[in-house]
Amino acid sequence: MGYEFGQLFNRGTQAIFYNWKEKPVQRMLDFDFLCGRPTPSVACIVQPGSNGGFQKVFFGDEEIAIPVYGSTKEAAKKHPRADVFVNYASFRSAYDSTMEALQTATVRVVAVIAEGVPEKDTKRMIAFARANNKVIIGPATVGGVQAGAFKIGDTAGTLDNIISCKLYRPGSVGFVSKSGGMSNEMYNVLSRATDGLYEGIAIGGDTFPGSTLSDHCIRYQNIPQIKMIVVLGELGGADEYSLVNALNEGGLGLNPRDPGQTNV
User: Fold this and answer.
1) Cys-Cys link to 138, which of 112, 159, 211, 237 (CB 3.0-4.6 A)?
2) Which residue from 245, 246, 254 is spatially nearest to 226, judged by alpha carbons?
3) 174 Cβ contact list (under 8 Å, min separation 6)
4) pTM to 2 decimals?
5) 177 three-state secondary structure
6) Nearest to residue 234, comparing CAs of 194, 210, 203, 200?
7) pLDDT in tens, 49-90
């Protein structure tokens, strides 16, 4: 990950959605409407082998048609402002489709949802992304959310959960976890104990995540709206220990004893 990255998403962010899945697309659009976004966050759908066409979905109470393309190259050409690639390919084809997205100049962020991507393939994806200043979320992730702005697929669950967690408007907490399910629980806790979430990322449960807990904590330092960082680690993980060691040594640019700095 390029550590100079700050905010990955905003209220104008649009995504290319790879491998049509009705429920996560509709959940993204329902979130958009709830947040008062003027335009849908899904710019288009890539369905490999498709001859094109449209998929009908709802944006609020209005039925809209999202264009479908047969290749990532065509989709990116038609929608150059769509800089997030939401990849719902299976583990069998996740590597090829992710690499094609990473090699697309207009794509900055790729979310790889699939579990079971071979580790050698994941390592190749990570190496390419870091060398080319791209960001990978996943594999084996539910994605991420910026409150009041943009969410990936099934992140944060149903509309009822989004409303109860106040994700329709930004708070000031930057959150990162491995688990998508536990992230939903923490969004609820944060909505009760703080002014709420600003951005939350689930890096995924695979051995080699495309971006680490530390990567996102460092990135959060570049977002002025984030005043507190919360990390939900897991037993047996190495990144959790490296994060604590880096914090104690000032390696994250933070002094945990300085009350004037962002809290971790």
Assistant:
1) 112
2) 254
3) 198, 199, 200, 216, 217, 220, 223, 226, 228, 229, 230
4) 0.93
5) strand
6) 203
7) 899 999 999 999 999 999 999 999 999 999 999 999 999 999
Helix axis angle for 213-220 and 239-248, nearest 10°, is 40
Q: Give the count of alpha carbons within 13 A of 193, CB side only.
A: 9
User: 207: which 2 tokens?
Assistant: 């051995």
Question: Nearest Cα to 135, choosing from 114, 112, 113, 109?
Answer: 109
Phi-psi region of 24 (alpha: psi -120 to 50; beta: other; left: phi over 0): alpha
Assigned token pair, 104: 């697309």
Residue 194, both tokens = 């703080």
Condensed to tens digits (0 to 9), the pLDDT of residues 94-111 reads 999 999 999 999 999 999
Residue 259 has pLDDT above 50, yes or no: no
Q: Which amino acid is at 183?
A: S
Q: Cβ contacts of residue 43 below 8 Å, gap of 6+?
A: 14, 15, 16, 66, 75, 79, 81, 82
Amino acid, single-letter form, for residue 10: N
Where does residue 212 rank: exposed (0-12), middle (13-18), buried (19+ CB within 10 A)?
buried
Amino acid (1-letter code) at residue 5 = F
The rounded distance, in Å, linking the Cα atoms of 229 and 174 is 5
Give the span between the Cα atoms of 164 and 173, in whole angstroms: 16
